Amino acid sequence: MAEGPHPPTESLDLDDARRRYHFALAPEDLDRLPFYSALLARLEGDDTALALLASVRAEQRNPMLVLAALQRAALLGHPVLAPIYDLVRHGVPTDPGVAADAVLEVVRRDPAVVGEQLWRSTQTNEPGRSAVLQAVVRDLVEPGQTMAVIDVGASAGINLFFDRFAVRARDDGDPLTLVCVDEGAVDRDAPLPSVGARVGIDPSPLDLGDDDDRLWLKACLWPEERRRHERFDAIVERYRTWPSTTLLEGGALERLEDALELSDDDDVRVVVNTWSAFYFSEPERRAYYEALRALGATSNVAWVSIESTLVAWPGLEEVTDEGHRGASQVVTARPGEAPVRWGWCHPHGRWVERLSRP
């Protein structure tokens, strides 16, 4: 159910909402996703759409939440939205501007289609990021060592299976192959470390076996990326045959110690956050960072952070490189060592750039 009625428009920060719609996609994705690009432009200029986004609780004020609510309605058979999104998902040529105008008209006439879903959270836990994780853990875990993976913001825990995906530079037709272009000194030749415990932490974990949770996860996928939908469907079919995982409900700081206790002390325990610290408040982010620094200094805990450049970690210089606008920064820390900027990647793992090794 929805959290409640939206506050009066005059009390909302519509300029902030406008900026969020405007910068929702990376520049490379604006060209690649003409329908979502056109739709975001329409939402950015509409008072109803601005008020809907501005009414969302601060930690989830993400345009992707609005987009997911619309696609959810389409997947459930909305008479206007369903045929539009079906054409887009199947790559049928259509005028993106005309389609976006029709979607915007639904928002204007019936804002509840979006508003009633804004209590939810964006929860893709995009498996494409597993291509980046595979590259990073080869640097963090020595050959022959076993690792445990602890995913903070795990959603349904898909990236806990990061080692179950093949990674290729080109599409080979298998929906479970991750297509990722490597730049810099990215190592794909060394074997991946063995994985012991697989533990996820999330305030609202989702279950791939639950119909509503599965529908929401699919709604969070971008409709123009047909391959992502095919991959998700393949994961749903096969995940029960993969290693067991544990999903803990709660916040990162609340459940981190519990998660670590589920792993073997001899394993390198790799704590991962991928576009989840983005939703932390600044005090939560700082406390999380300090907790990881303390754990890394005293125990066999490593850290991988794949986040927006808006997430500034203490001790790392501010990102001002316009060439990486829209990219995710990859920060890592080996046990006992300070965090470093490992490299960059596309937010969904379409490419990864390893910075020069020290």
What does this structure look like?
With 358 residues, the chain is an alpha/beta fold. The protein has two domains: 9-115, no CATH class; 127-354, Rossmann fold. 37% of the residues lie in helices and 17% in strands. The protein is built from 13 helices and eleven strands. The strands form two sheets. It has a nine-stranded mixed β-sheet, with helices on both faces. A two-stranded parallel sheet has the order 2-3. Helix 1 (14-22) packs across helix 4 (47-54). The relative contact order is 0.13. Mean pLDDT is 93; it is low at 1-7.
Low-confidence runs of at least 5 consecutive residues: 1-7
CATH architecture of the largest domain: 3-Layer(aba) Sandwich
Individual helix count: 13
CATH class of the largest domain: Alpha Beta
Please list the strands of the largest sheet in the order they lie side by side.
Answer: 4-11-10-9-8-7-1-5-6
Strand content: 15-25%
How many domain units?
Answer: 2
Give the terminus-to-terminus CA distance. 51 Å
What summary fits the major beta sheet? 9 strands, mixed
User: Which fold name fills CATH's third level, the topology of the largest domain?
Assistant: Rossmann fold
Indicate the mean pLDDT: 93
Task: Assign the structural class, choosing from mainly alpha, mainly beta, alpha/beta, alpha+beta, or little secondary structure.
Answer: alpha/beta
Tell me how many strands there are: 11
What is the helix/strand order? HHHHHHHHHEEEEEHHEHEHEEEE
